[in-house]
Every structure is written in structure tokens, then in C-alpha cells.
Amino acid sequence: MFLQPKKIKYKKTRKGRLLRMNFRSNVLTSGTIGLKAYESGTISARQIEAARQAINRKIKRTGKLWIKIFPHLPITKKPNEVRMGKGKGSVDYWSSKVRKGTVIFELAGITTNVAVAAFNTGGAKLPIKTLIFK
User: Fold this and answer.
1) What pTM was estimated for this model as a whole?
2) How many domains is the chain built from?
3) What pLDDT is attached to residue 21?
4) Is 1 part of any domain?
């Protein structure tokens, strides 16, 4: 099962804008080493889960992994070969808007070499460029 909100106020939202930089959630809060977004973009719940699984396989489930983003944004899609109009499509998947500088994952309790290898494989699963930092 992928990450998605349990309860929402509105079923569908507008696209909105992606701002360039993030200065709020750009430092480590729980772990000792982190994976940071190096460019802005949207990350789906499936991509977050794929990256989490890849990181957990590399660290062999030792240490602790924190996911610092959550997919709140519903992405809608209309079926193929449907004419224009007739309203907004139904919710297809959930995603998270990520600004440049946002911490995506944090790790603690493992060596730096293993953490860097894990974040390299996990970052490859994401659609944006990432940066490993301490």
C-alpha cells in the first residue's frame, strides 16, 4: 500500500506553483545523514515507496530511516480517448511537491559509507536530482 491521506477536506485540488527554494525543512531533525532535493519537482507515492524499499535493502534494516515528505496532493487524470469538457478527471494517484533544498529521507544508526550507498540507490528511484549531506 502506498502513502496517501486517510481523510481530506476536498477531493480534487488545483495544480498550483512550485517555488524554487526551501528554507524551512532543509536541516536534519532526526537522523545523522540525509537525502536532500537538489531541484524542485513532484514525487509520487509510488516513487517514495520505491526509494524507501531500495534504501532499506541496502542498509539491511539496521539503523532507522525517516521519510520527511508525505504525498498530500491528489493528481487527477481523465481516461484515454475522452472528449474535452465534462469536468475534471478522477484522482489517479497522490504526490508530494518538493522544493529545492527539502530533506526527503534521514538515516541514523549506520556507518557513513553504507548510508551513502543506500542514498545513491534510493535517489536513483526519484524523478529529481538529489544530494547527500550531513
Assistant:
1) 0.92
2) 1
3) 85
4) no
